[in-house]
Amino acid sequence: MSRFWSPVVQGLTPYVPGEQPKLQNLVKLNTNENPYGPSPAVLAAVHEAVGDSLRLYPDPNADVLKDALAAYHGVARNEIFVGNGSDEVLAFVFQALLQHEAPLLFADITYSFYPVYCGLYGIDFVKVPLTAAMEIRPEDYRQPCGGIIFPNPNAPTGIGMPAAVVEQFLVEHPDAVVVVDEAYIDFGGESVIPLVKRHPNLLVVQTLSKSRSLAGLRVGFAVGHPDLIEALDRVKNSFNSYPLDRLALAGAVAAYQDEEYFQQTRGAIIASRETLVAQLRDLGFEVLPSQANFVFVRHVREDALQLAQSLRERSVIVRHFKQPRIDQYLRITVGTEAECAALVAALREILGAAP
Ligand code: PMP
């Protein structure tokens, strides 16, 4: 704290991301990264961009990437906004579209960045409790609001909603922007990008950090009606005209050109998740139904924080949240088959189960 800090900064509680330990040889299942590397086509494209023209500014409009995304998702270029990871895209969304008199609505258990952005941009919000089954339900959002935001599937629960349920939000709140954060959509969920044409109040946000394995490159995007996209562009252009660097642009475009690799790796993650869910249930865990690349689990007997510490002693890192209602849960990223096997072996040892 210093006398130079503004009152807003004094009141901020910054988001603390999962730890990125420096140690090697850890089974790192705490931040939902993709255990497989990005497509070899991405690496080749980034190498080429390095050798090419780093002295030049990148395209401020990121047209090549927008065209690749537009073709892939069946929308127009002016229905797409790109940014430096979906966290940055969301920051622009909060500034451009969610600063209204009425409060923003989001779930009490959801992505913890949302209240952070509200604090930063002075946005009022109301937290709507998840149901007993930890679900987001449109009925609970029938109240005056200036916008609604939720991840689908939700984080950290992993529970997804079918597109028809998401559409209920859009129909019931025609005067509010509904932001659907689809960070984990490719692991079994149903994207609502096709609904953008019918609903001018829908903004879908996706990232290349998870299913495309490019967390280190920082690329995310939003899809919505051109009027919503224009609002985001206005804020972005008042802040930084060059949101994506040349390497990110080259790598991101290449990621959408290797569909086979994408399908193969996301399929492998979904298959590992199903095996892991069965093994965790055998070990006495209650596992919420996951459509993401992580599972959210609670042991019938053991304390979650204690379990996380015991796993850490065995070089396996998972995520524990010190938050009421979920402090007995662990969020575990689905790793490679070998990483999942190491996790299960460590848990067997901790729980004294037969190998
Ligand atoms: N939304 C949700 C729900 C997330 O869990 C994450 C990852 N922490 C993000 C957005 C942001 O991802 P990125 O900035 O890497 O695109």
Automatic annotation (TrEMBL):
The question of whether Transferase is a record keyword is answered with: yes
Listed transmembrane segments: none
Pathway note:
Amino-acid biosynthesis; L-histidine biosynthesis; L-histidine from 5-phospho-alpha-D-ribose 1-diphosphate: step 7/9
Q: Which InterPro entries match?
A: Aminotrans_II_pyridoxalP_BS, Aminotransferase_I/II_large, HisP_aminotrans, PyrdxlP-dep_Trfase, PyrdxlP-dep_Trfase_major, PyrdxlP-dep_Trfase_small
Ordered alphabetically, the record's keywords are: Amino-acid biosynthesis, Aminotransferase, Histidine biosynthesis, Pyridoxal phosphate, Transferase
Which is a Pfam family this sequence falls into? Aminotran_1_2
Q: Which family does it belong to?
A: Belongs to the class-II pyridoxal-phosphate-dependent aminotransferase family. Histidinol-phosphate aminotransferase subfamily.
Q: Name the chain's protein.
A: Histidinol-phosphate aminotransferase
Q: Which organism is it from?
A: Noviherbaspirillum sedimenti
